Amino acid sequence: MTIYEAVKHVIPVPDAAARYGLDVSRNGMARCPFHNDRNPSMKLNDDYYFCFGCGERGDVIDLTAGLYGLNNYDAVHKLADDFGVGYETVILDPAKIEQKRLEREREQEKERQVFLSLTERLYVLRDWIVRFAPKSEPEALDEELDPRFVEACHDLARVEYLVDVLCTGDEREKREVVKELRSHQILPEAPEKC
After folding, report:
1. What pairs with residue 29 in β-bridges?
2. pLDDT for 112-127, tens place per residue?
């Protein structure tokens, strides 16, 4: 098996498209980057893409080459590097390639779970920082700070940073955040909504 075959087998087209900045809907549609597309006209399946507007079509390597102006050789190596498809994959049998794909899917699911938990916590903390802020009247100056307000002030910046890393970081940064939060059980539980 060549590196070309391994990359095409392991990396679904919608995953590469999303990774490289296309907004792929749940039904696999996206705005075509190869023409001035106002509405999603590109259909992305696991193995190929096709644009109903301009007729552009191809596999994951063609998509990457077109997006970055690369030849196929450079595109396949970009994909392999970005998605962690090691060159040892070329000599592995299809069962091991499938195992690697399943491992990647499990990692993506862990990342998704961490992201959902963090965004829920972010929503609650932003609510608390407004709802439980001290009153501004002069007679309220002696008031005790609500513990939820204090927690929100303490945690908000860190949670915003972690969400930013999961949204815009590279694969290594995302893996580190997920690993840190899951292994040390630092993953913040979403506080109860009041």
Report:
1. 43
2. 888 898 999 999 999 9
* Residue 31, C-beta contacts closer than 8 angstroms, at least 6 positions apart: 22, 23, 37, 38, 39, 40, 41, 42
pLDDT digits (tens, 9 = 90+) for 13-67: 999 999 999 998 878 899 999 999 888 999 998 889 999 989 999 999 999 999 9
Alpha-carbon torsion angle 33, 36, 42, 44, nearest 10: 10
Query: For the whole model, what pTM was predicted?
Result: 0.48
Provide the token pair at 186.
């630092």
The beta strands (E) that lie in 31-77 are given as 42-44, 49-51, 57-58
CA distance 106 to 161: 23
Tokens of 18: 């999303």
Q: How far apart are the first and last CA of the chain?
A: 57
User: Using CA atoms, how far apart are residues 97 and 83, in angstroms rounded to an integer?
Assistant: 13
